[in-house]
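User: Just a sanity check before I run the rest of the batch. Below are the structure tokens for the first item. I only need the designed sequence back.
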């Protein structure tokens, strides 16, 4: 647990600090979600196209356990009178929203807790308005009115694309208390540890699986699965991570139901057809115990339950099939990088290059020495173009990453060039490895009060030479530069020390302008080996 806490603590420190003198922007209930949508990468289980997934051999038995004639019900809507609401509200905050500590009943499976000490720390960006104002928490009651029940709070940090979800949340007058809490980085596919819950029984995120008004009444197709509750569960399967019932014959947490392709939905309104098409393509994920075939959605006063209720009730559990339990789409092979053309360019960046390899997919990104390239355009699975970022002179690795997070790298594939000057050998300068590398040495004597000087150069071979400091007959330092590119893509620098005075070796690549220095402190006799020098 120490490692997990340290990662979360680092996240807290990096994302919660306020700009000096700047108040956080107002939190917005039901605000615009950060794109691109749907939430999470396209390869996430919530966004997985299961239209061609095999039917589980136990599908008929699972449906009969639920009750084949059981109708669907939209577990969402608008106001229900007083402070009561239907559906789950969600909150969009700025990245500077102050973090609050939450004390948990299930602290051992919650984020925002030091699991060594079981102490919560400020982690959740909960707006203070939620303490006394209604309709920030599922059910509608303010935070300081503990009505019991699920009382989910869903918070999206739009700047960092982080999702925070809490279960059974209330404010006890001095601080926030909840059953459990979970953090999800919407930039990656982070599954909960095995056996862990989240703010949902299955251990999954909630918000990505909600029916939202802007999607149903939008113009684009809906590209994600939906959260469904069933009365009982039997263990869990991928992508779930948590057991919440062991009833033989029940669908496990994480099980997926798909509306049969043969179900005729042409008689429904265009908006409802859009939703039901997503039921066929992405399905429903069993995520919590509750009423059978209740589909979760957001609180939104624009919903018309006179339209929703009969449309949902027209679909029965028997219109669905359970796909293969634990289904995962086959993972595409990781990309590979075989070449970059041209293979060198200015350190100021902006060089147009073509990267060749295999397995490049739409949305792929490229980096040069860890710095992102711009204008990436995937031409085919074996070729993409981009512009190089600015970097210091020298040799760098080139990587291509697909949207599913898989990455391919070619070591030392691109050379950044700077201001270049040919190597000129002389009394104080060695030119090694076909005169590509210029080497000079300065020294300081710690034994006589700090006399300084420069090393005198003597070449031995094309790759090797030595320096003397005090007497031409007294060798102080032997140096060689080897071309190790066939082995690891780099030039290698080796030094053999015969002196314990202070000295600094400077090596300059005359072709790229890149410079490396090697320092030896006084009263120390130490040789050096650098197999990734250039």
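Assistant: Here's the designed sequence for the first item:
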């Amino acid at each position: 647990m120490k490692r997990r806490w340290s990662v979360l603590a680092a996240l807290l420190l990096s994302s919660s600090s306020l700009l000096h003198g700047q108040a956080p922007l107002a939190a917005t209930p039901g605000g615009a979600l950060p794109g691109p949508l749907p939430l999470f990468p396209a390869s996430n289980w919530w966004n997985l196209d299961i239209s061609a997934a095999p039917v589980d051999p136990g599908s008929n038995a699972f449906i009969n356990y639920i009750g084949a004639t059981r109708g669907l019900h939209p577990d969402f809507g608008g106001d229900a009178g007083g402070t009561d609401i239907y559906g789950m509200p969600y909150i969009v905050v700025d990245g500077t929203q102050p973090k609050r500590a939450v004390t948990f009943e299930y602290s051992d499976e919650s984020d925002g807790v030091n699991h060594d000490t079981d102490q919560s720390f400020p982690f959740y960006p909960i707006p203070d308005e939620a303490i006394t104002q209604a309709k920030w928490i599922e059910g509608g009651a303010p935070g300081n009115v503990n009505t019991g029940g699920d009382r989910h709070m869903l918070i999206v940090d739009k700047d960092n694309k982080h999702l925070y979800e809490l279960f059974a949340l209330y404010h006890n007058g001095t601080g926030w208390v909840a059953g459990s809490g979970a953090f999800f980085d919407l930039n990656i596919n982070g599954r909960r540890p095995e056996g862990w819950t989240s703010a949902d029984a299955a251990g999954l995120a909630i918000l990505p699986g909600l029916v939202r008004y802007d999607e149903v009444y939008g113009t684009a197709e809906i590209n994600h699965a939906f959260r469904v509750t069933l009365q009982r569960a039997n263990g869990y399967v991928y992508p779930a991570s948590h057991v919440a019932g062991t009833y033989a014959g029940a669908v496990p947490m994480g099980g997926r139901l798909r509306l049969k392709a043969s179900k005729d939905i042409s008689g429904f309104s265009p908006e409802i057809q859009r939703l039901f098409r997503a039921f066929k393509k992405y399905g429903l994920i069993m995520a919590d115990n509750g009423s059978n075939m209740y589909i979760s959605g957001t609180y939104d006063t624009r919903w018309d339950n006179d339209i929703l209720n009969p449309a949902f009730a027209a679909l029965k559990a028997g219109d669905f099939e359970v796909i293969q339990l634990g289904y995962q789409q086959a993972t595409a092979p990781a990309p590979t990088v075989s070449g970059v053309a041209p293979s060198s360019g200015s350190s100021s960046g902006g060089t147009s290059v073509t990267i060749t390899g295999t397995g490049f997919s739409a949305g792929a990104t490229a980096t040069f020495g860890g710095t992102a390239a711009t204008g990436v355009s995937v031409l085919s699975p074996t070729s993409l173009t981009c512009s190089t970022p600015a970097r210091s002179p020298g040799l760098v690795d080139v990587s291509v990453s697909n949207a599913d997070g898989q990455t391919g790298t070619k070591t030392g594939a691109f050379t950044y060039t700077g201001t270049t000057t040919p190597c000129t050998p002389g009394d104080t300068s060695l030119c090694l490895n076909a005169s590509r590398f210029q080497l000079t040495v300065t020294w300081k004597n710690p034994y006589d009060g700090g006399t300084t000087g420069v090393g005198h150069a003597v070449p031995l071979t094309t790759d090797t030479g030595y320096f003397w400091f005090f007497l031409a007959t007294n060798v102080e330092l032997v140096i060689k530069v080897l071309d190790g590119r066939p082995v690891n893509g780099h030039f290698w620098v080796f030094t053999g020390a015969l002196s314990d005075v202070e000295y600094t070796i400077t090596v300059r690549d005359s072709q790229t302008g890149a410079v490396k220095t090697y320092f030896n402190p006084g009263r120390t006799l130490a040789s050096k080996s650098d197999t990734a020098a250039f």
